[in-house]
Amino acid sequence: AARSISNCPTDPAGSVGQLLMDLAACGAAIALRRHPTDGQPGGLNHLFRVGREVSSYGSVGELISLARRYIADAEARLALGRAARRRVVADHDYRHRLETIWRVAEAGGG
To answer: What pLDDT score does 99 carry?
Structure first.
């Protein structure tokens, strides 16, 4: 598992991207800024268990607190990264992504 804490950006619409999946696959402890779309289908809350597999924050102060917590508690940081990696391997690898794309295409979706 990675020993770092990664602040993973989302795009302005709140979409998570390949960087999140790559960092999680490496076992990094990830922090993402909360976004109003997190609870929608395809949003962060549907991809990961926030607080158990990734962390989220709403302000710079919260991000600093998360960073301090995970710097001070290596086991918690490593556990977060391991959990993120398990989720990616179980639910978000390329096979899963291609299956989803195929289902959407077959259904005539965009």
So the answer is: 85
pLDDT at 96: 79
Residue 50's beta-bridge partner residues? 54
Among candidates 61, 58, 59, 79, which has minimal Cα distance to 5? 79
| pLDDT confidence of residue 104 | 82
Token look-up 């917590």 returns 69
Which ranges of the chain does DSSP label H, i.e. alpha helix? 18-25, 44-47, 60-72, 74-91, 94-106
User: Considering the entire predicted model, what is its pTM?
Assistant: 0.80
Task: For residue 35, give the nearest of 23, 54, 2, 102 by alpha carbon.
Answer: 54
Tell me if 53 sits within 8 A of 82, measured CB to CB.
Answer: no
Q: For the sheet containing 29-33, what is the strand order? A: 5-7, 29-33, 55-57
Q: Are 88 and 24 in contact (CB under 8 A)?
A: yes
Alpha-carbon dihedral 15, 17, 19, 22, rounded to 10 degrees? 130
